[in-house]
Amino acid sequence: xxxxxxxxxxxxxxxxxxxxxxxxxxxxxxxxxxxxxxxxxxxxxxxxxxxxxxxxxxxxxxxxxxxxxxxxxxxxxxxxxxxxxxxxxxxxxxxxxxxxxxxxxxxxxxxxxxxxxxxxxxxxxxxxxxxxxxxxxxxxxxxxxxxxxxxxxxxxxxxxxxxxxxxxxxxxxxxxxxxxxxxxxxxxxxxxxxxxxxxxxxxxxxxxxxxxxxxxxxxxxxxxxxxxxxxxxxxxxxxxxxxxxxxxxxxxxxxxxxxxxxxxxxxxxxxxxxxxxxxxxxxxxxxxxxxxxxxxxxxxxxxxxxxxxxxxxxxxxxxxxxxxxxxxxxxxxxxxxxxxxxxxxxxxxxxxxxxxxxxxxxxxxxxxxxxxxxxxxxxxxxxxxxxxxxxxxxxxxxxxxxxxxxxxxxxxxxxxxxxxxxxxxxxxxxxxxxxxxxxxxxxxxxxxxxxxxxxxxxxxxxxxxxxxxxxxxxxxxxxxxxxxxxxxxxxxxxxxxxxxxxxxxxxxxxxxxxxxxxxxxxxxxxxxxxxxxxxxxxxxxxxxxxxxxxxxxxxxxxxxxxxxxxxxxxxxxxxxxxxxxxxxxxxxxxxxxxxxxxxxxxxxxxxxxxxxxxxxxxxxxxxxxxxxxxxxxxxxxxxxx
Length: 641
Fold this sequence. Notes:
Distance between the termini: 158 Å
Radius of gyration: 41 Å
Mean pLDDT: 81
Number of strands: 22
Strand order of the largest sheet: 7-9-10-11-20-17-16-13-14
Strand content: 15-25%
CATH architecture of the largest domain: Distorted Sandwich
Number of domains: 2
CATH class of the largest domain: Mainly Beta
Largest sheet: 9 strands, antiparallel
CATH topology of the largest domain: Beta-galactosidase, Chain A, domain 5
Number of helices: 15
Helix content: 40-55%
């Protein structure tokens, strides 16, 4: 090792010694560190002692609970027995869920009350692509109310025991093609399985009440049987009825629209051997149904939950409560239904539930007017939808899957059938235009002071020329019911639900090409393109119609005719896009038909023919001849011309 290396090592050693001496803690710092260490040790000791005491306390409490568990349970059961009598032992339990499902729905049951807790329709989704639940949650009320041993018993507070060993039961069957869902005819030709879920409330050996739910494959119906054995010795003998309570909050399934789901959500019901009626939608209302009822439906726009009696329900109390300013729920529906109770040793009360879509053909196959839950308008209009529009629509569906094309073909077919009336209306208007010079002469001759004379002269002119002044109106009146029928058909057609066409993502509700940052009163916060197109074509069609008609001398009427399309712009902006699309197509075809008729109708020839008619002797009608003959027999001379 050379001299330089030794010197370097020495310097490094010296630096380390100096550094250690400079960083050596003072006496005060050493004492402070010692005090801090002692404090931490004391805190750790206290925490350890507290933890030890806590563990001892928990151990003691658990030992106390274990030692008194049987006594505690006995006291709890005794309290429930005091409250519920022989049903007291069933008032203590833990809620457990069970499911029964087929290819169309999944039903969840709770052993608490043996009730239907929720229903999911498998083949549908909400407007925001979530599973479609008809109802769901602890707010669902489902159970019987009756008196037993001088106590009011509510079964939704009691725990039932399932009689089967499975918690999840699936009903199997053959493959079902689209369009055959829930069809009775398909099920008869391709039978599937059937499964049941039974919940029993046993109060004594051989004495029980049970709910039996049976679900078939490819069916929207659930059989619900209330079976009672030996309960005549428990239930008060002076009862003629058991009250069944059913209630739940109606979840929102569709996009918010005052002319959509909100407009069609209400309770509907059918009187036994009577008509179908309903509570007013969008209102909180209650009603007593004091006569026999066949079924009660908790109805939304496209889906319903309906309870159906095998025979009839003696009476019921129904109530709907609107839930305002909610994006999740529409209303709360409640039904208190009387079930006829005969007090027999063994007794069964049978009924059914329908959980499914408001599809007209599906509901109609049950032959109990359930299809009336699909609102198709008032009488006459409803019949047009039932016997004309729906059959044509279903026929086209068999061959075409695109609903935009189906509506187009439906419109073309309807306008083609109505074309003779359209042509007759146009020809009547052409004849009126040809007589306009003579009408103007009569107006100038008689003026405003001789209205009766002018009216007689005008009618005589029409009769002489062979023109019916109402000929242009009657054909239009025949078309009007079809226009109104469409107004009810499209918004309630579940077939259009979530079906897209061009820019419209859902033909069952409005199509929005522009969402506004504000809301226009009576119009909304969006712009519907189909509604705009409908308005523009209506204005054009109205203009052509005004050109075809003779001047009436009523400027206010012309203004009103042009105001109508603007009014419909505000009304239909929130309606079904399918409806606006239909009206738009109808207008386009009407415009085309008008130009087509104009191309081969010569107004001059019509005027010439009317002039020839005026020279002919007007033949008297048989009715007029009979009147004149009767007058002659009575000695009354006909007035001189």
